[in-house]
Known about the structure:
Layout: H1 6-18, H2 21-28, H3 32-46, E1 51-54, E2 57-60, H4 62-89, E3 94-101, H5 102-119, E4 123-130, H6 132-141, E5 146-149, E6 161-174, E7 185-186, H7 188-191, E8 195-199, H8 204-215, E9 224-229, H9 232-240, E10 246-249, H10 250-258, E11 263-267, E12 272-279, H11 286-303
Amino acid sequence: MSDPRFSYFRTFREVVRQKxxxxxxxxxxxxxxxxxxxxxxxxxxxxxxxxxxxxxxxELTEEGEIALEAIExxxxxVERAKDKIAAVSKEPSGKVRVSTSTVPGGYLxxxxxxxxxxxxxxxxxxxxxxxxxxxxxxxxxxxxxxxIVGTDAFVTRKSxxxxxxxxxxxxxxxxxxxxxxxxxxxxxxxxxxxxxVNRESGSGTRREVEKYLKSHGLGFEDFKIVEEVGSTEAVxxxxxQGAGISIISERAAKRAESAGLIRIARLEDRPRRFFYAxxxxxxxHASATEAFWEFLLSEFRxxx
Length: 304
C-alpha cells in the first residue's frame, strides 16, 4: 500500500466542505472520478470507511472525523511553513486578521492601517472591532493574528506576545449642563455617588477605571450605575443626553467635547491607561502578520 499524495488531503478537505464529490471536483478543477479515486486511496491508507452517502450528499463517518482532524493539522502546518519561508525570502503577502477594542479601533489604528496598506499592497488587513475581552479571546483561539486592546488583563497564555504601544489619560466626561461642567479639574471624591454610565464587562476601559477606583479604595458600587453600554460612542451619547457621568479615554473625550456633546474635567491625580498589542503564536499567514506587527510597533514607538 503506497502512501497518499499531499494533494489527496486537499481533496478530502474539499469533499468535507462541499459534502459532495461532484462539487468538490468542480471546486478543485478535477474530474469526479479523480476525486473518487483519491478518497478510495485514503480509505485504503487509513483502512477505514471515511464517508457515508446521505440524501444531502456525503457525511463523515466517525473514522472520517478522526482523519479530518489529522489532515487539517497537516495542511495547516504546511501552510504555516510556506508562510514562514515567504517571510524570509519574499515580499509579505496574504491576510492579517486584526481584532481591536473600540478606542484603538476608532482613534489609533485607522491612519496606521492606511499607511501599512500603501506600503504592503499584497497584504489584506481584516479588522474586527469588539471589546478588549473578545479581541484577546480571538487571538487566544486563533481567530485573529493581532489584537489591539485597552487592557492586558484578559491574556491567559504566556505564548501570546504582549507589548504596550501607547498610553493616554483617563478623564471625566459630564453632561454640558452638569454642575461640574465648568470645572477644569475634579477629585475622585467630587464625583463619588454620581449617576454613572459604564461600559460592558469585557471593556478595557472599564477594567482600567476599575483598577483606578480600587487604588482609591473605591469601586463601581460607590456610584449609581444607570447604564452599561457596548462602546465608547454609546457612553458619550448617554452622557451627552444627561444620563450621568463617566470616565473614558482622553482621545475620545476631546473629539466629543469639540463637537459640543460633553464637557471634560481632568482628575487631579491624572490617571493613565495603556493600550497593548497582542500577537498570536500561530498566525494564519506568517509573512503578513510579521510585517504588520513590526510596522505597528515602529509606528507607535515613533509617536511615543
